[in-house]
Amino acid sequence: xxxxxxxxxxxxxxxxxxxxxxxxxxxxxxxxxxxxxxxxxxxxxxxxxxxxxxxxxxxxxxxxxxxxxxxxxxxxxxxxxxxxxxxxxxxxxxxxxxxxxxxxxxxxxxxxxxxxxxxxxxxxxxxxxxxxxxxxxxxxxxxxxxxxxxxxxxxxxxxxxxxxxxxxxxxxxxxxxxxxxxxxxxxxxxxxxxxxxxxxxxxxxxxxxxxxxxxxxxxxxxxxxxxxxxxxxxxxxxxxxxxxxxxxxxxxxxxxxxxxxxxxxxxxxxxxxxxxxxxxxxxxxxxxxxxxxxxxxxxxxxxxxxxxxxxxxxxxxxxxxxxxxxxxxxxxxxxxxxx
Length: 339
Hints:
By secondary structure, the protein is of the alpha/beta class.
């Protein structure tokens, strides 16, 4: 069985390659036309050094010298692509641009499968990927979707899972927005839509401690992908999602969250609405509804996706609250770019 290795380049492009059992990462990459920088191929120069964020691999100390990789670096997960042999699916950070490595994002030609108005402010659209190579991405990443009939594109997080025959997105209905106008007034099943993918350093890492998801508006999209990927076996620590919207009409995706809660015993969620007349819901901002008792004063990881103002406010809250955040991953979007 071959392993899937996601190569994450410093410009945000991700390329997923297959690596056979016992095959060195650099050999697998070169076989698939990805040129990871190399000088020696013998574990002597350190040119191909990267960092393995997740997954298992073999790389005996005898296969490289300390000038290329120190014992301390190896302990921290740094690897040499010319000596690393994956023995599971992995994510590896490559300290070079995708252009240098000749690993451009994948180009896809899809067709509109459906467009649904989830609310007056939110649109879900799905693209049929038949005829394309398999679309691989890390849950949380995004695509650059071309606006049909124009030279412009918009960046949207996947709400679907990697490897599926269809790709789905949950996006804002922006008044007078080019993509919004297309989706609400012009789009019909079968329309051709091109996109590039995957992009982004906002993606789900292995959950090794209590984890907090914070979503604002259509920032719920990448979390739907993450939750659909998790299983009871991979979620072994408490996971809390706090989902905030501005108005009642902005609240979408609750059915998917309920399904995730049924599937994942350690997952829970709550939502809040900033501007509402309802008495049966939480009000205000997401940070007002993160109980310090839930975090138990220990270390935890935070994932945040929302508008620019929300990201800035949460970052300030994290700095001031001193609740023990270990890692803070975030993605922010504006109306014109979405991600």
